[in-house]
Amino acid sequence: MNEMEKMLAGLEYCYDDEEISLMKLHAIENANIFNSLAEDDLDRQHEVLSDILGSVGEKVWIAKRFCFDNGKNIHIGNNFTANFNLTILDIKEVYIGDNVMIGPNTTITTVGHPLSPKDRRAHLAQGSEIRIGNDVWLGANVTILPGVTIGDNVVVGAGAVVTKDIPPNSLALGVPARVVKELENDLD
User: Fold this and answer.
1) Using an 8 Å Cβ cutoff, are 69 and 27 in contact?
2) 117: domain range?
3) pLDDT at 187
4) C-alpha–C-alpha distance, residues 177 and 162, integer Å
C-alpha cells in the first residue's frame, strides 16, 4: 500500500508523503478561496463550500478563517453555524449533524501521532473519523480528538478537550471533557 492508501484505510502513514502533501496544499488553496469571499455573499459561500467539502446542507454559515486538511472528508448538515477560526483536520471523515453551533477557535482533528519519538521523527500519523450529532453546541476553544462520537443534544463547554464519546442529552465540561449533567431533550 502507498501512504495515501494507508491513510484512507485508517492505518499509520507518513504524513509528509508527496501525494498527501499535495492534498494538503490543495486544501489550503481551497480554504484561501473560501476565506477570501465577501462576508455578505452567502450564495457564493455556499457554492464554494459545496465544491470543496464532501457534502453541505442548507443554511450553513462559517466565519473566517476556516482551515482544513482535505475538505472532501467534511460532511455538514443543515442549519449549521461556526464562529471564527474553525479548524477541521479531516484526514478521515467528519460528520456533523443538523442544527449544530460551533464557537470560535474550535479544533476538530481526526489525526493523531505516535507516542514514540522514533515514530514521530519518521513523520507518522493515523486518523479516525469523528461524528457530531444533531442539535449540538460546542463552546469556544473546544478541541475534539480522533475517533470521538458526540451524541444528539450535547453541549460541550468552552475550553473542553473531548477525548472520549459523549452520550446524547449531556453537558460535558473540562479537560478531559466529562459529562456533568444530563440535559432535557425538549424537542420530543
Assistant:
1) yes
2) 3-179
3) 85
4) 5
**Measured CA angle at 9 (ends 7, 11), to 5 deg:** 60
Q: Write the pLDDT tens digit of every residue in 116-131.
A: 999 999 999 999 999 9
Name the stretches of the chain with pLDDT < 50: none
**143 in a structural domain:** yes
**Is residue 41 situated within a structural domain?**
yes
Indicate which CATH number applies to the domain containing 174. 2.160.10.10
The backbone torsions φ and ψ at residue 18, rounded to the nearest 5 degrees and listed phi first, read -60, -45
Q: Is residue 188 part of a domain?
A: no
Domain presence at residue 113: yes
Cα atoms found within 13 Å of the Cα of residue 3, Cβ hemisphere only:
16
Catalytic residue among 26, 46, 75, 113: 113
Active site residue 26: no
3-state secondary structure of 137: strand
* Overall number of domains in the chain: 1
Q: Name the H helices within the chain.
A: 3-8, 18-35, 42-52, 117-121
